[in-house]
Amino acid sequence: MPEVLVRIEKVNKHFGENHVLRDIDLDIHSGEVVVLLGASGSGKSTLCRCVNRLETVDSGVISLAGVPLPDEGGELARLRARVGMVFQSFNLFGHLSVLDNITLAPIRVRGLSRREADERARQLLDRVGLGDKADARPAQLSGGQQQRVAIARALAMDPQVLLFDEPTSALDPETVGEVLDVMAALAADGMTMLVVTHEMGFARRVADRIVFLDEGRVHETATPDEFFDAPRTERAREFLSKVLSH
């Protein structure tokens, strides 16, 4: 069994009176693709953001490669650099070229030289099918192209795990596939991934495990075939009957 890369133990999170994560326990192994499914408001995105420490937790521990994530400080910055994140909105810098968007963090945070960072960025642009867009500005790209740049930017930090928070939900239908294809290729290459998505076909095809959240709790963990063909809980059956009926 591969090593546990991300360990989430008894994690709780409140927003005011709203208890959004309730005693979450989850291990993600090296090279594994875990897809979080659940209705809106079930806690999926919040859990993702807690793993990247964009949100702090009220109680519990999140560890990366056996090291608990601290709440703040330089050690948190170093650990966070090993957890890449791709957001629903692409969060690219509009005034920078595609190449500069990708090289900014490796130069500033990892201390790469301009030449090293440029070389790596161009390799990653080729990998996501955008080798000819290095000098373009984000506004000149489609939504799908911008999201592929955002994936290349996350990969440029050489993360141990990549988090995807609904990466296709802001895209036109015809560009969704190009982003999912890049994600599937990363999974095939052994990238450890935690994915929040509403793309059920992708979840079934690419996930090693489905984790179903409801009202802040893990209700079910299963292989894709088990989850989609024979969900064990009534809540999961209800969820699937709604999302798969259209």
TrEMBL record:
Its main location: membrane. Signal peptide: none annotated. It comes from the Bacteria. The keyword Transport applies. InterPro entries: AAA+_ATPase, ABC_ATPase_HisP-typ, ABC_transporter-like_ATP-bd, ABC_transporter-like_CS, MetN_ABC_transporter-like, P-loop_NTPase. It is found in: Cell membrane. Keywords: Amino-acid transport, ATP-binding, Cell membrane, Membrane, Nucleotide-binding, Transport. One of its GO terms (molecular function) is ATP binding. Residues 6-240 form the ABC transporter domain. PROSITE patterns: ABC_TRANSPORTER_1, ABC_TRANSPORTER_2. It holds the Pfam family ABC_tran. It is a peripheral membrane protein. SUPFAM superfamilies: P-loop containing nucleoside triphosphate hydrolases. Belongs to the ABC transporter superfamily. This is Amino acid ABC transporter ATP-binding protein. It comes from Streptomyces prunicolor.
